[in-house]
Write a structure and sequence with these properties.
Bound molecules: 1,3-dihydroxyacetonephosphate
CATH topology: TIM Barrel
CATH architecture: Alpha-Beta Barrel
Number of domains: 1
Largest sheet: 8 strands, parallel, barrel
Structural class: alpha/beta
Distance between the termini: 5 Å
CATH superfamily: Aldolase class I
Length: 263
């Protein structure tokens, strides 16, 4: 029996974050991901594509038919109003999304999003009926200073609302220095951080810690996915660059088919 199958309360999740990439022509890759998922290539893992908001409605039909979830990459805290250029959680839901990424380091750094703002947006996701994928992770300087756990701990406590449940919340641990760099932490460091996150969730959200999924993100690719996905308390991946092509993304998701075959 493989590690993840023995934790039947946490279905693995492989989510692609396309970031600000993708025009309508690129939905051909999303269609291929849908076809491969429908054909069982991801085993029993859940597959989710967090596309640019402009592509969500065009992707709904093939994703729904294949059982692939759709997600947004950010939302405003309010349901509607005078916020030019913003997208609300309700709008994402209306466009066909069931997930939304919140607190990604590119938004924390590039749009000045602090923990309180991420928490407000996570509550907005809950209000709209979306599952929030809340991202946490330290910078290289913070890791080198020995502060990685303190930073991630304060991001968790500050960003996750107390009413979160395993159905409404997924955590993604994405060390900032591992995003788009080809670098990854050691498997030991990932195991320690994911265990720490699970313990912190128990402290903050008593009683649900064993069922909340914790993804690893940062330079996940087909060549390292198998070893990363086997780390205890790694319940899947949040994939950036390698989610843009069906070949690479399914090369990652198929780890779960292969684990199952091997079990
Ligand atoms: P990469 O997979 O490109 O490193 O990006 C990770 C990420 O930021 C996913 O949200």
């Amino acid at each position: 029996m493989t590690e993840w199958l023995s934790r039947s309360e946490r279905r693995p999740l492989v989510a692609g974050n396309w970031k600000m990439n993708g025009l309508r022509k690129d939905l051909a890759e999303a269609d291929k991901i849908c076809a491969a998922t429908a054909a069982g290539e991801a085993g029993e893992a859940e597959v989710v594509l967090c596309l640019p908001a402009t592509l969500l409605m065009a992707a709904v039909a093939s994703c729904e038919a294949a059982g692939v979830g759709l997600g947004g990459q950010h939302c405003h805290g309010a349901p509607n109003g005078p916020f030019t250029g913003d997208v609300s959680a309700e709008m994402l839901k209306d466009a066909g999304a069931s997930y939304v990424i919140l607190g990604h380091s590119e938004r924390r750094a590039g749009h000045n999003e602090g923990n309180a703002s991420v928490r407000e947006k996570t509550r907005a996701a809950f209000r709209a009926g979306l599952t929030a994928i809340v991202c946490v992770g330290e910078t290289r300087a913070e890791r080198e200073a020995g502060d990685a756990m303190a930073i991630v701990g304060s991001q968790l406590t500050g960003s996750v609302p107390g009413e979160a449940t395993p159905e409404t919340l997924v955590i993604a641990y994405e060390p900032v220095w591992a995003i788009g760099t080809g670098l990854t932490p050691t498997l030991k460091d990932i195991a320690e951080m994911h265990r720490f996150i699970r313990e912190r969730l128990e402290a903050d959200l008593s009683g649900v810690r064993d069922r909340i999924r914790i993804l690893y993100g940062g330079s996940v690719k087909p060549s390292n996915a198998a070893e990363l996905m086997r780390v205890p308390n790694v319940d899947g991946a949040l994939v950036g660059g390698a989610s843009l092509t069906a070949r690479d993304f399914m090369g990652i998701a198929s780890v779960y088919r292969d684990l199952r075959v091997a079990s």
